[in-house]
Amino acid sequence: MGMASALETLCGQAYGAKKHYMLGVYLQRSWMVLFMCCVLLLPVFIFASPILKAIGEGDELAELAGGLARWLIPLHFSFAFYFPLQRFLQSQVKARAIMWVAVVGLVVHVAASWVFVGLLKMGVVGIAVACDISWWVLPIGLMGYSAGGGCPNTWTGFSLEALSGLWDFLKLSAASGVMLWSLPLI
């Protein structure tokens, strides 16, 4: 979420400067940077059990937490797409679209929880699966809104221009992430 905050700043500036097409370019850059960060963090999810054991956690709890962490990998990747889309739409004052997609996500989450936890009795794993499903509803819904005509001036499709300036975007995203991460420490 912290790294997606860089997008909020850039999109706000581009929108104010009436360079609307740049919002879509910045969104794509954000997706690429955050997706790569998710890939880099993936070993933490995959090897959560040995990591937890190495820092002194009990074997039983480490195994349970490690198994759950692997089930949460899809949720982890959904953040890389959802948070930038949310910032992209917020900078255009499209809060109503975000709200309605969140309502749909909530309904899907309740239904998925009922199925996986209530009917299938999957316990904590069922909760993780329900979260995986409902959190992917959010970026899919927001992207559907954006690409489906909700943002005609700011989303003009995928652009090769998004591939340039990735290093600068990464530095800005990392700085935003560190800033938001360190706020609770102050």
Describe this structure in words.
The chain is mainly α. Helix content is 78%, strand content 0%. It has eight helices and no strands.
Describe the secondary structure blueprint for this structure.
Layout: H1 5-16, H2 21-46, H3 48-54, H4 59-71, H5 73-90, H6 95-119, H7 123-150, H8 166-182
List key phrases describing it.
mainly alpha; 8 helices; 0% strand; 78% helix; 186 residues; single chain
Strand percentage, roughly?
under 5%
Mean residue pLDDT: 93
Structural class comes to mainly alpha
Helix content: over 70%
Molecular shape = globular
Give the oligomer, counting copies of the same chain as homo and different chains as hetero: single chain
Number of domains: 1
Transmembrane segments: 32-52, 64-85, 97-117, 124-145
Family: Belongs to the multi antimicrobial extrusion (MATE) (TC 2.A.66.1) family.
Organism: Cucumis melo
Protein name: Protein DETOXIFICATION 27-like
In short:
Belongs to the multi antimicrobial extrusion (MATE) (TC 2.A.66.1) family. The protein has helices at 5-16, 21-46, 48-54, 59-71, 73-90, 95-119, 123-150, 166-182.
